[in-house]
């Protein structure tokens, strides 16, 4: 796994935006996998800045969400489709009709998951998938114990994840849904480039296990080690538990032809 250690969360946003900018320059109709939560927030702010200053256009891109809560009303501010509209679509030129997410309000949830998988394949697959990592090592909503080969499906959220996400619901864990639809790890691993973002000391242990630990369902993000093109962009605090941090710094500094990851 390629690990890029930068100073802080703002730098994480800048470097990851460089990766997307380089991709879109090569392929203006790139397919982007969009994550929610705190990890990509600086990235989305930087993308909005670049679009506003005509440094970047996402107008021809497509976007696919990693996951969605089950049962939240369409106008709920924490529905992930709403979050992406607010943080990505509105401040950039990415068009709303070119963004899809799994339908957490569908009457037939397994059918909605199968339809979502087909939509990704029909788009030619995801070129660059943005990922965060939970404090327990989950990616998307693939909680500890999840199958490392699973596809988009219904999952039950752990108490830890619901506690972590309660801050988005006014610190009321009772308002956090118990279920979600999520891309499976098998789906995520089919993207051509995976970009994992992590900031803050609270992510340090998870990042250590995901990057340097064994591949295990107890730390689902560790399955990223099986992918041929993964870039982890992390700040100093998140990197504080990495045993090979000096090596990662040297590898990045001495990379002779680094071009936007």
TrEMBL record:
It is an enzyme of class 3 (hydrolase). Pfam families: Glucosamine_iso (PF01182). Allosterically activated by N-acetylglucosamine 6-phosphate (GlcNAc6P). The record marks 146, 153, 155-156 as: Part of the allosteric site. It catalyses: alpha-D-glucosamine 6-phosphate + H2O = beta-D-fructose 6-phosphate + NH4(+). SUPFAM superfamilies: NagB/RpiA/CoA transferase-like (SSF100950). The keyword Hydrolase applies. It comes from the Bacteria. Belongs to the glucosamine/galactosamine-6-phosphate isomerase family. NagB subfamily. This is Glucosamine-6-phosphate deaminase. It comes from Kocuria oceani. The lineage of its organism: Bacteria, Bacillati, Actinomycetota, Actinomycetes, Micrococcales.
């Amino acid at each position: 796994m390629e690990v890029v250690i930068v100073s802080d969360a703002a730098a994480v946003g800048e470097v990851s935006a460089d990766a997307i900018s380089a991709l879109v320059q090569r392929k203006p109709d790139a397919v982007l996998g969009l994550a929610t939560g705190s990890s990509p927030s600086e990235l989305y702010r930087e993308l909005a800045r670049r679009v506003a200053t005509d440094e970047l256009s996402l107008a021809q891109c497509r976007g696919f969400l990693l996951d969605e809560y089950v049962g939240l009303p369409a106008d709920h501010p924490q529905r992930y489709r709403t979050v992406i509209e607010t943080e990505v679509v509105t401040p950039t030129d990415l068009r709303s009709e070119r963004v899809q997410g799994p339908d957490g309000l569908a009457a037939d949830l397994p059918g909605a998951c199968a339809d979502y998988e087909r939509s990704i394949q029909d788009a030619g697959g995801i070129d660059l998938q943005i990922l965060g990592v939970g404090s327990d090592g989950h990616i998307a909503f693939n909680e500890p114990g999840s199958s490392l080969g699973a596809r988009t499906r219904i999952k039950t959220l752990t108490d830890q994840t619901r506690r972590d996400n309660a801050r988005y619901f006014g610190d009321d864990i009772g308002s956090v849904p118990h279920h979600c639809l999520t891309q499976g790890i098998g789906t995520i691993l089919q993207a051509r480039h995976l970009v994992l973002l992590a900031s803050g000391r609270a992510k340090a242990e998870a990042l250590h296990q995901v990057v340097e630990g064994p591949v295990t369902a107890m730390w689902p993000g560790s399955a990223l080690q099986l992918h041929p093109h993964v870039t982890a962009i992390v700040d100093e605090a998140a990197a504080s538990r990495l045993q090979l941090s000096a090596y990662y710094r040297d590898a990045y500094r001495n990379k002779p032809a680094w071009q936007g990851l």
